[in-house]
Amino acid sequence: MIQFQFITAFLLIALGIYAFLAKNNLLKLILALNIIDSGIHLLLISLGYRVELNEIPTAPIYTGYETLKSPMVGPLPQALVLTSIVIGVCVLALAIALTINAYRHYGTLDVRALRRLRG
Amino acid sequence: MMALPYLMIIPLFGAFSMPMVSLAGRKAREAWAVLISGATLAVGSWVFYRVYEKGTVLYTLGAKSPLGQANFPIRIVWEVDLFGALMVLMVAFVSFMAVLYSLGYMRHDTGLDKYYTLILILELGMLGIAITGDLFNFYVFLEIMSIASYALVAFRNDTQEGIEAGIKYMLVGSMASSLILLGIALLYGQYGTLTMGYLALKLSQNATVVGKVALALLTSGLLFKSGASPVHMWLADAHPAAPSSISAMLSGLVIKIGGIYALARIAFSVYGISISVKTVGWLIILFACITLIVGNAMAVIQTDMKRLLAYSSVGQIGYILLGIGIGLAAYGSRTGEIALAGAIYHTFNHALMKGLLFLIAGAVIHQLGTRDLNDLSGLAKTMPKTTFAFLIGAAAIVGMPPLNGFASKWLIYESSALFNPVLGAIAIIGTAFCTAAYVRVLYTFFGRPSEKVMEAKDPEKSMLWPMVILTIAIIVMGLFPWGISDKVMIPAARALENQLAYVATLMGGG
User: Fold this and answer.
1) Any idea what the CATH number is for the domain that residue A28 is in?
2) Complex ipTM
3) Who among A80, A105, A106 is closest to B136 (CB)?
4) For B75-91, what is the mean pLDDT?
5) CA of B113 vs chain A CAs: smallest distance (Å)
C-alpha cells in the first residue's frame, strides 16, 4: 500500500524548496522555510504512526496500557517534532524581527534589493 | 564522568542569569561574563585532560547505562573522544578570549546584557555539538548555535550592513538546517534509532539507499554551514558584518564545529566503512580543492580588511576539508591518518590564528573607525604591538616554519602529495594566493604613514591581553610542532578513525 502521508510530506518539502528558490519577497522566503519544516515534521510524525492488525493506533500513554487493545504510536517522533517546532518558532521570530529591520533600512521586502554588500 | 554536564550547566545558567546580574551595573555584568566563560574553560580543560589520560568518556542522561532492557540504547548519550575533547578545549579557550576582548571592544554599544547572553549561548551550542553522541541532540545544539549566531551577526541592527548580512546568513543557514533535519528524519525512519554509535552498528549491517540519501543530505547541509565553495557567499557577508569579537568566534569556531567537526563525526563515526569511502572522500576532496582556490584567490583582491580575513577563512576551510577528504578516501592507511591528523591540527591552529587576526581587525576599527586597507597605510608606526601581533598571525596562517601553522599545513601537504601529487600542487597554489593576500596587508601596515593613522594608538588592556595570549599560544605551539602532532593530533585522528571503539564504548564492550 502506498502511504499517502509520505507523498504529502515530500510534496510539501518540494513545494517549499521551489518557493525558496523562485520567490523574491522576504516574507515568502520565510514562509517557504516554514513549509519545508512542516513537511519534515509531517514525515517524522508519519514514521511513528503504525497500523497493526488493522487497528488504528492510539496516543502513547503508559498508565493503563495493559487494557489497551490497539497499538500505540511511537512517542519519540512526537517528542522530536515538538522540539523541532519550538526551534522553528524561534527562527521564525528572529527572521521576522530581521525583516522588520530590513524594511526600515531598505524600504522594500524584495531580496534583490539586499545587495549592497559586495566584493 | 560527572564533570561533563557542568560544561552545559555553567554557560546555560550564566546566559540566562545575565539579564538579572546586569541590573547591578556594568561592572557586575562584565565580571559575571568573565567568570562564567572562565569557569567553562576550566571545566573544558578538565574534560580534555581526563579524556587525554583515560580515553573516551560516555555520559548518559537520566541513567547509569544507555542500554534499556532490550539491550539497545534508548537514552540520549554524550560521547567524547579525543577529537571531541580537543574541540571542547578550542571552543572554551577562544570563547574566553572573545569575552575578555568584548569588555573593551563593546563598551560603547547598548544592549550589552543581551550581547553577553547570546555569546554564552553560542558557546553552549558549540560545546554541545562537540560532546553529543545523539543525532537529534546534535541538531538541537546546532540550532542553538545557529540562532545565537544569526542574532549576533545582526547585533548592530542600526547599520544596514548587519541587517543584510544577518538576513542572508539566516536564510542560508535555515535552509541548511532543514536539509540536516531531513537527513536525520530519514535515518530515524530507516533504522529507528538516533544514537550515533548504534546507528553505526545498524548501518554496517545493512546500508540501504535511504541511508545513503540521508548521508547526501547531511553532507550538503554541513558543507553549507562550513562555508565551502560554491556556497561560501553568505560567509563573506556575515563574518565581516558582526562585531569583531563575534567574527573571531564565527570564523574561528562556528564554521569548524557546526561544519567540519560534525561532517567528520558523521562521515567517520556514523557511516565509516559502511559506505564507499573512496567515492565520498573524492567528493569532499573535489569541494575542498574548489574551496581552497576560490577562497584564497578572492582574499587577494579584497580592500576591506575583515572581508579579506573572511575569504581567507574560506580558503583555510578548504585545507581542512582536503585533510578530511583524503582521510576518508585513504581510510585505514598511514596517509589517511596523517591527513586526518593534519586536518584536526589545522582546525585547532586556525581557530587561534583567525581569532587573533579578527581581534586585531577589531582593534584597528576601534581606533580608526575604518577597515578599508587603503586608509590603513603606515599603521606600524602608531600601533606597533598590534602590528606585531598581526605579523605573527599572518606568518602563522601562511605556514612559516617556527609558528604553529607550519606543522599542520605540512601534514596536509605531505599526505596530499603522497595520496595524489596533483592535490599537493593545488594546495601549494592555494598557499601562494594566501601569502599574496597577507603580504599585501603587511605591506600596507609597514608603508608610509597616512595622516589618518597618526592619532591611532595601541588598544586598551582588556583588548590587548587576549591578543597577547593568542600570540603567545601561537608561538608556543609553534615551538613543539611534532611533539603536539605525535602526542595529541595523531591519537585524535586515530580515535576518529576507530569506528569500532566508538561503537564499543556505547554498547559497553569497550
Assistant:
1) 1.10.287.3510
2) 0.92
3) A80
4) 91
5) 18
